[in-house]
TrEMBL record:
Gene3D superfamilies linked to this entry: P-loop containing nucleotide triphosphate hydrolases
Name used for this protein in its record: ATP-binding cassette domain-containing protein
Keyword vocabulary terms for this entry: ATP-binding, Nucleotide-binding
Source organism: Chitinophaga oryziterrae
An example Gene Ontology molecular-function term: ATP hydrolysis activity
Length: 300
């Protein structure tokens, strides 16, 4: 029986190890119904392991997790009916056409494409001109749209998307996030992982993850607001030397064509870069990537 719960996903003290590697460490968090929630972290942070546990494909070593009120161990059958899952690697049948893949997934869930077409219409229309093409011959962006249609065809309550935009071009990435915003408006709970920090801002709440642990969990705005220092973007004619010089005194890392520096005053910074030419120093607002780097340095 489902537990009465206001949250769509709840993890309590979940741990998972693979041999010597602890992929997920005593992790607890929850996702509200209808929320667009992001797991943000680099390769190996433990994102895929969490998705596999929540979609009932992998057993945790310890802890409890529920999806839509159902326990991932005891109630795995109920969960499988209620969730849509788009795994990290392209998981569709390469030798089946676009429409064959879609029909296959609908049949698997005991439904038909016709019955739930309204759910995927907007996304499917973009790939419909290629419906007789084999999935293996689609572009990255089209594969991603087909995989999303297949994950949605049984009208899931909760959608798990594991790095859906990895390896996809910038335009398709943008379109994909627009699709997610529209799905959210239909009331679906979406848990999405990404290694791209710029995508974090498109989620309602995010968990910043590293080595199986959550470093911070909040809205992107609140995480940025909590950044404690002034942050400066600096550049000069010799960026390599600039990095070496500033690193002696402050936290400093390459960020686009600038270095980002925190932990010192603007006056002190100006003093440290005196020997450089073509110097530009400007105060900047921290982004999620700056917050992430700061948290990583703190936990090192
Ligand atoms: N089947 C497995 N056997 C052994 N180690 C594993 C296995 N699956 C994952 N790991 C390890 O567990 C850790 C977490 O992996 P996980 O795949 O959950 O991370 P991730 O954040 O999804 O990263 P990625 O994008 O690389 O999948 C990594 O150190 C990974 O090497």
């Amino acid at each position: 029986m489902p537990q009465q719960s206001s949250d769509a996903v709840i993890l309590t003290n979940i741990t998972k190890t693979y041999g010597e590697t602890t992929a997920v460490k005593d992790l607890s968090f929850s996702v509200k119904h209808g929320e667009l929630f992001g797991l943000i972290g680099p390769d190996g942070a433990g994102k895929s392991t969490i998705f596999r546990i929540l979609t009932t494909l992998l057993l945790a070593d310890a802890g409890v997790a529920t999806v839509d009120g159902y326990d991932v161990v005891k109630d795995y059958r109920e969960i499988r009916k209620r969730v849509g899952y788009m795994p990290g690697k392209f998981s569709l049948y390469q030798d089946l056409t676009v429409e064959e893949n879609l029909h296959f997934f609908a049949t698997l869930f005991g439904t038909t494409v016709k019955e739930n077409y309204s759910m995927i219409k907007e996304i499917y229309e973009q790939i419909a001109p290629f419906k007789t093409r084999r999935a293996g011959k689609l572009s990255g962006g089209m594969k991603q749209k087909l995989a999303l249609c297949c994950a949605l065809i049984h009208r899931p309550e909760v959608l798990f998307l594991d790095e859906p935009t990895t390896g996809v071009d910038a335009v398709s990435r943008k379109e994909f996030w627009e699709m997610l915003q529209r799905l959210k408006q239909q009331g679906i709970t979406i848990v999405v992982s990404t290694p791209y920090m710029d995508e974090a801002d498109l989620c309602e709440r995010i968990a910043l993850m590293q080595s199986g642990s959550i470093l911070s969990i909040d809205t992107p705005a609140a995480i940025k607001h909590a950044y404690p220092d002034e942050l400066y973007a600096v550049k000069s004619a010799n960026m390599h030397q600039l990095l070496k010089d500033i690193r002696q005194y402050a936290s400093c890392y390459a960020f686009g064509e600038y270095l980002h520096v925190s932990g010192i005053s603007e006056n002190a910074l100006a003093g440290y870069v005196k020997g450089h030419t073509d110097v530009i120093i400007k105060k900047v607002a921290p982004g999620i990537e700056d917050c992430f780097i700061r948290l990583l340095l703190k936990h090192e």
